[in-house]
Design a protein that fits this description.
Length: about 110
């Protein structure tokens, strides 16, 4: 085998491993959001499950050794679902504070 072919295969292997690690990191970050998915609207659930399904699916826009499309799908879904989760958390926090204010829960008792 010629030297340039060995170098080309080595570089291709390194690029594949780096993109595989990126895909795995993004998939793990998506799975960490799984606990809030049930409270998200339908679009958030679709983005969550659809992106994970696309990442493990053998049918891709680009061949499987090239994981750029998987990275793009997972990153976009992570950004979208993360934004929905933050919005949901902020809404629930405001609702909890409003509920506490209206009921007086959480206020220290005044003893004279």
């Amino acid at each position: 085998m010629s030297d340039w072919l060995v170098v080309l295969l080595a570089v291709g292997g390194v690029v594949f491993l780096v993109t595989l690690v990126i895909v795995l990191v993004l998939a793990v970050r998506m799975l960490r959001l799984a606990r809030v998915v049930k409270e998200l609207p339908t679009a958030g659930k679709f983005a969550f499950y659809g992106s994970l399904l696309y990442a493990i699916s053998p049918i891709d826009l680009l061949p499987d050794p090239i994981l750029i499309d998987d990275i793009g799908v997972l990153a976009a879904a992570l950004a979208y679902v993360g934004k929905l989760a933050r919005t949901y958390a902020a809404t629930n926090q405001r609702g909890l504070v409003a509920h506490d204010a209206s009921t007086g829960a959480g206020r220290p008792s005044s003893s004279s």
